[in-house]
Write a structure and sequence with these properties.
The chain folds into two domains: 181 residues, Rossmann fold (3-Layer(aba) Sandwich); 49 residues, no CATH class. The chain is built from ten helices and six strands, in the order E-H-E-H-E-H-E-H-H-H-H-E-H-E-H-H. A six-stranded parallel sheet has the order 2-1-3-4-5-6, with helices on both faces. Strand 5, helix 8 and strand 6 form a beta-alpha-beta unit. It comes from Xylanimonas oleitrophica. This is Alpha/beta hydrolase. Keywords: Hydrolase.
Length: 267
């Protein structure tokens, strides 16, 4: 009698200025479904709040989590917002190493990260964050001007109603935390992302990628372009949810997560 294949273990990667705490409903769901799963804290967040955020340091965190499941265990990444961009970049890195090492990555669920960070919008938001951290009067005036440009449609050329919040690549605060990262982490993270293209990372990835967005997420600017870039891609839009799709619609997100993991397991 042949035994059923071991389901992939799961590493969950949170968004900007949140922590691993946002994944509590998904961890319970995955464990109940028989998956080994762990939620990590990225540098500058949660238990690692004293570290500075860099992509290499974030990759080290993911590498440690992957190794924690033991040798040879297939692993899927699930990332939200900054965690989604980090997961796509990680998948591209793993693909580049395919000739020299055996990657254990079998798939990526990338949520709330379908706006390519390369280009002017991220640079503008990074400048806003830098000015906020500096706290000088002139910087504050520059911040207000940059915010006005963003609200006027710098992100994708779309207009916004007066008083609309500036969109952030970060996830909103939805879970209680003992530590709330400052704006410096926004500067660091966006500086890291500004030179990368999530579309290029998708083209480079050699594993299935599920793109999951909330229908009300204002960062769904390029989801069709992202989907077209993936060699093996699936797009799911969750009705009624915003940027923090896993928190706004946890039951729907968990169902999508189960479908994705089954897809990854067939590979």
């Amino acid at each position: 009698m042949s035994s059923s294949p071991t389901p992939p273990a799961v590493v969950l990667v949170h968004g900007m200025r949140t922590s691993s705490a946002i994944w509590a409903p998904q961890l319970r769901y995955l464990h109940d479904a028989g998956h080994d799963a762990v939620a990590v804290d990225l540098p500058a967040h949660g238990a690692r709040h004293e570290d500075r955020f860099t992509l290499p340091a974030a990759f080290d965190v993911v590498d440690d989590a992957v190794r924690s499941f033991g040798p040879g265990r297939p692993v899927a990444l699930v990332g939200l917002s900054l965690g989604g961009y980090t997961s796509l970049a990680y998948a591209a890195r793993e693909a580049s190493r395919a000739g020299t090492s055996s990657s254990r990555l079998v798939g990526v669920v990338a949520a709330a990260c379908c706006s390519d960070p390369r280009g002017k919008p991220v640079a503008l938001f990074r400048d806003v964050a830098h000015a906020t951290v500096g706290g000088l009067g002139a910087a504050r005036r520059g911040t207000r001007a940059a915010l006005a440009r963003l609200r006027a449609g710098a992100l994708g050329g779309r207009s916004r109603a007066p008083g609309t919040d500036v969109p952030a690549i970060a996830g909103d605060t939805t879970a209680p935390e003992t530590f709330r990262p400052g704006w410096q982490v926004v500067t660091d993270a966006l500086t890291q992302l500004a030179g990368r293209s999530s579309v290029a990372d998708l083209r480079a990835a050699r594993v299935p990628v599920w793109l999951v967005n909330g229908a009300r997420d204002r960062l769904r600017l390029e989801e069709q372009r992202h989907l077209a870039a993936a060699a093996d891609g699936t797009l799911v839009v969750v009705p009624g949810a915003g940027h923090d799709v896993n928190s706004h619609a946890p039951e729907a997100f968990n169902r999508v997560l189960s479908q994705a993991l089954r897809d990854f397991g067939r590979g």
